[in-house]
Amino acid sequence: MKRFAVVILLFAVALAATVFAPASASAEDIKLVGVITKIDIAGPDATTATATLKDNKTGELVTVIVSDDLTLDKFKDHRIVVGDEIRLKYEVKDGKNTSKYFRKTAGC
Amino acid sequence: MTLKRYLILLSIALIVPFAAQAKDHPGKAYIEKNGYQGPSTCEAKGCHPGTAKKFLGTVHWKHASLVRNVDNLEPGKEYGMKNRIYTMCNGNDTVNNLKEVPPNPKTGKTKFTGCNTCHPGDHLSDVGSTGKKAEAAIDCLLCHSSAYDFRLRKPFKDEKGRVVMGQDRSVKAAMAVGKPGVKNCMVCHEAAGGGVLIKRGFAFAKETDVHAAKGMVCVDCHAAKDHRIPTGFDPNNWANDGVRVACADCHGEAPHKDEDTNRHVARIACQACHIPRTGGAFAKDFTRWTQGSDGFFEPTTLRKEANETPPLYAWYNKTVSNTPAFIGPKGSRGDKGSRIYPFKMYEGKAFFDRKTGELLSMDFAPPMATGDVLAGVASAAKTLGIKEYDPVPGWQTIYFGSSHLVTKEKALSCANCHAPNGVLNFKSLGYSDEEIRKLTSAALYFDKMAEKQKEEW
After folding, report:
1. Which of B276, B333, B346, B405 has the fewest beta carbons closer than 10 A?
2. Would you list which residues of chain B are within 8 Å, Cβ to Cβ, of chain A?
3. Which one of 3.50.50.60, 3.40.50.1010, 3.40.50.2300, 2.40.50.140 gives the CATH number of domain A24-104?
């Protein structure tokens, strides 16, 4: 009986670990608002860029790969620059943070 | 297909392969030799003579015009972003002029903000200004260069402490002059109302609009003449250059192969079927600002993405009801000039004057720094010379026009409307119970659709 209880307990712990695991371990979208600290883009013909944001809530730096045409174009002509605050949604794909939504929070 | 539509598609087909040639704008050698000084360069050597002066008379410069289709306006007075007060933008160019906001008490930081941030001048020559100085201040390349460096278009304080809007007047930007591309328009128009896609709620991208997917740009439909830009009849977009654009200009009044569908055009606007979704902000509260993680405050806003919100359908005869509680379409089933249009619904909460019932406006600088909304109302009242007022919170409903996010593939079909669970509320559109019973029955189209279904499969 005691062994059965231990097995049940282990099962419950494993289940909880799965359910409450950090989002970065799954394919779920992760959202944050943060300020851009760095943009790396390899020239005008680049098809991807990386942007590093400082999460406003945690202060942690998060680097994401950006590949959507509109945001890349905004990097290229500096409509989005270092210092801009961004609403970001990304997922972890093959161990890399991949942007799914990258928008400036500001407007007029 | 009409002749105009053919011509536009033909132009696109011809222009796209030779886009590179656009770099060879006449006058390139002159610009390389003499540099770019702004409108004077554009007008040199007999090119674009008088254009700057004419531009000062357009809505893009004045942010206002005479408005003839809206109720309760003063005759002879011009209205627009310059002076309007409504609850999507509770401020305007006048009360919320571009300036440095007071330091945030928490962070000590300040920033520049104002409704006229997008005005294509240098802010020293601002909305509606005239004369040679204003002509020289026009930022032609903001709209006409594909190589504009937007880092330079930032407000700053000059040596006299005046707020100046920077411009890119580099030779590099000038050499890339041409017809405005989508980004030239969207750099301002996508961020109106407090953020990306907040006010209009549409993205002009190949994923969201059939015209964009075909490689068209904004000015293919909004084709300007002397910088006067044709616009539609959005009930909330009043200022206009006196020229209009409509789907039928290209597509004609009988654009479908099927005559039954064409019959609908008399009373159903194209947008009703071809723009089944809207997006953007659907509610905003100017009486309660939310503090962001940067310490500054913004009006509390509920928003959706493009194509996430169902529209509301109403009769519209292109005249507008304008009261403190409501801005929206006029029209009815009995009015033969009315058609059913889709509208993006918006509700805004702000302060009204208990004494007059009128909506009060707000200078955003005080609440942005401290969250003190009544200080913003007081500042705006001072600017406008309003000495006595009694602010009370209240709501205003606005119907925004919905003329983008056009789809062919996902357009509404018979069963989307003519069904008991259809998208049209026939009752509110003025139909009797007996008419509704007939209008929401599959009997209307069953045989025809069954035949079509058989052909398709």
Report:
1. B333
2. 113-115, 117-118, 147-151, 183, 187-188, 191-198, 203, 205, 292-294
3. 2.40.50.140
**CA contacts within 13 A on the Cβ side of B374:** 6
- Going from N- to C-terminal start, the domains of chain A cover 24-104
Pick from B91, B169, B173: nearest CA to B137: B169
The CA distance from B315 to B429, in Å, is: 7
Alpha-carbon span B261 to B414, nearest angstrom: 9
B54 belongs to a structural domain: yes
CA angle B136, B141, B146 (to 5 degrees): 175
Name B57's Cβ contacts closer than 8 Å, sequence gap at least 6: none
Largest CA distance in chain A: 69
Query: Domains in chain B: how many in total?
Result: 1
What CA–CA distance (Å, rounded) separates B136 from B178?
Answer: 19
Residue B299 domain flag: yes
For the entire predicted model, the pTM comes to: 0.89
| Residue in A54, A72, A77, A108 to test binding to B, most B beta-carbons within 10 Å | A108
Q: Write out chain B residues lying below 8 Å of A107, CB-based.
A: 191-196, 198
- How many pairs of residues across A and B have Cβ atoms under 8 Å apart? 52
Nearest CA in chain A to B294: A56
Rounded to an integer, what distance in angstroms lies between the CA atom of residue B126 and that of residue B138?
10
**Closest chain A C-alpha to B152 CA, distance in angstroms:** 9
Alpha-carbon distance of B277 to B284, in angstroms, equals 20
Residue B229: how many other CB atoms lie within 10 Å: 19
Q: Which residues of B418-457 are buried (b: 16+ CB within 10 A; e: fewer)?
A: bbeebbbebeebebeeeebeebbeeebbeeeeeeeeeeee
Give the residue numbers spanning the domain of B307. Answer: 3-412
Taking only the tens place, the pLDDT of each residue in A51-96 is 999 998 899 999 999 999 999 999 999 999 999 999 999 999 999 9
At which residue do the structure tokens 């000062």 appear? Answer: B56
Q: Which residues pair with B280 in a beta bridge?
A: B304
- The reported pLDDT for the residue numbered B106 is 87
Label the pairing between strands B278-291 and B99-100: unpaired
> Cβ distance B396 to B325 under 8 Å?
yes
**ipTM for the complex shown:** 0.80
Q: Is the dihedral of CA B417, B420, B423, B425 positive or negative?
A: positive
Tell me, rounded to whole angstroms, the distance of Cα A68 from its chain centroid.
15
* Distance separating alpha carbons of residues B10 and B16, to the nearest angstrom: 10
Q: Which residue of B has its CA nearest to A73?
A: B183
Q: B206 lies in a domain?
A: yes
Phi and psi at B154, nearest 5°, equal: -135, 145
- What pLDDT does A45 receive? 85
- pLDDT one-digit tens code per residue, B187-204: 999 999 988 999 999 999
Is B80 inside a domain boundary?
Answer: yes
Sign of the torsion angle spanned by Cα atoms B441, B443, B449, B453 = positive
